[in-house]
């Protein structure tokens, strides 16, 4: 059965999903899939309605037995194909999604072969498999991770220390043998066993010939390593020492596959897998990490992502930890930047009261006088720097005086246009948009001081 391709918040009717050459799916065919999602607390990813399948604000891939659903974000400039993506638009969307994921804390994805990967039956999953395989293969060219592993063996000579209880049991009549315990500096350790196990599972899952070829090289390289089934609890305990830091990227990806998969232990293959990202969190982390990376261009002194502060307190302790998306410091003031992944066409009143209450609470907690609500632009026309400055930055003053400074707090709402064929090559345009927004804030702070 071909993968079901959805765009974020998109809908696909059952009569467009073929389970055979002349047979279409219906709601009863997806009962098992729906139960699997509920059991794994993934029912918010997609919804199975009476008429079809509807995607929500998650992107990624979900595989259950013979069914595969791939959800891509609305990050493609081609608006005509936004609901019914084609091969060309798939490549652009995947390229932009991978670029945004490269700004997340755990992943450092640098895949460049989007065109070939987008032609596969499940392109986004193949991108992740390619990144894991290539990054691990490159690391193994430099070194093989080795650790001291505790071994036990019945030897003809004494090595390490003698295990008295087992020596009496096995060598009571044979005085020429010694049952020893010793540490061996070996590559047959749990880290390499994890890489071997994940590589074999992904080899069966992948349909891309290049991916399968690289994975087969890795499997053959680990021919001296014991094949051990690794679950997410064992994988979570693995720690890298100082000499193994270059394996951080493949280890994070290996854990990603293990933690989000249901593995059939009888067949040593990935039966079900769900690797999804909440677009609210991804948009927030991308914007904050982007500003942090280019903070010199924005003339920012300090930026903190997810800065926490307790909301309530009594005589003994404080309660209710809150986290602002981004806390920014300039030489003349403090700013709270709060991202909202919601539809916004840049009009003056296109925000909710709840967003305002939330960001103003952050201002009080962090003693900031200015707040920014930043939305992704969803209007019809492409957004340029001059348009942002003139029409899409709206300033409001809170209708309550700050009792300390006797001046009202400032709220700004703004939009940023991420709809482009290639986010990576358009970094300068994103910098210009953010510079325009932050520059307006700096100007307001300067006027307050005067």
Residue fraction in strands: 25-35%
Given as residue ranges, the uncertain stretches (5+ residues, pLDDT < 50) are 78-82
Strand order of the largest sheet: 12-13-14-15-17-16
Identify the overall geometry.
globular
Through-space gap between termini = 67 Å
Number of helices: 14
Q: Which structural class do you get from the secondary structure elements?
A: alpha+beta
- Rg estimate, integer Å: 27 Å
Q: What is the number of beta strands?
A: 17
Q: Roughly what is the average pLDDT, rounded to an integer?
A: 80
Q: Tell me the major beta sheet.
A: 6 strands, mixed
What helical percentage do the residues reach?
A: 25-40%
Structure description:
With 450 residues, the protein is α+β, with helices and mostly antiparallel strands. The chain has 14 helices and 17 strands. The chain has helices at residues 31-39, 87-101, 114-117, 123-142, 164-171, 190-205, 209-221, 232-236, 248-259, 279-293, 295-298, 353-365, 385-392, 427-449; strands spanning 4-7, 11-13, 46-48, 52-55, 58-64, 67-72, 147-155, 161-162, 178-186, 261-264, 269-278, 302-313, 318-330, 333-339, 370-376, 394-401, 408-416. The strands form four sheets. Strands 12-13-14-15-17-16 form a six-stranded mixed β-sheet, with helices on both faces. Strands 1-6-5-11-10 form a five-stranded mixed β-sheet. The chain has a three-stranded antiparallel β-sheet with strand order 2-4-3, with no helix packed on it. Helix 4 packs antiparallel against helix 9 (248-259) and helix 6 packs antiparallel against helix 7 (209-221). The chain is globular and about 95 Å long.
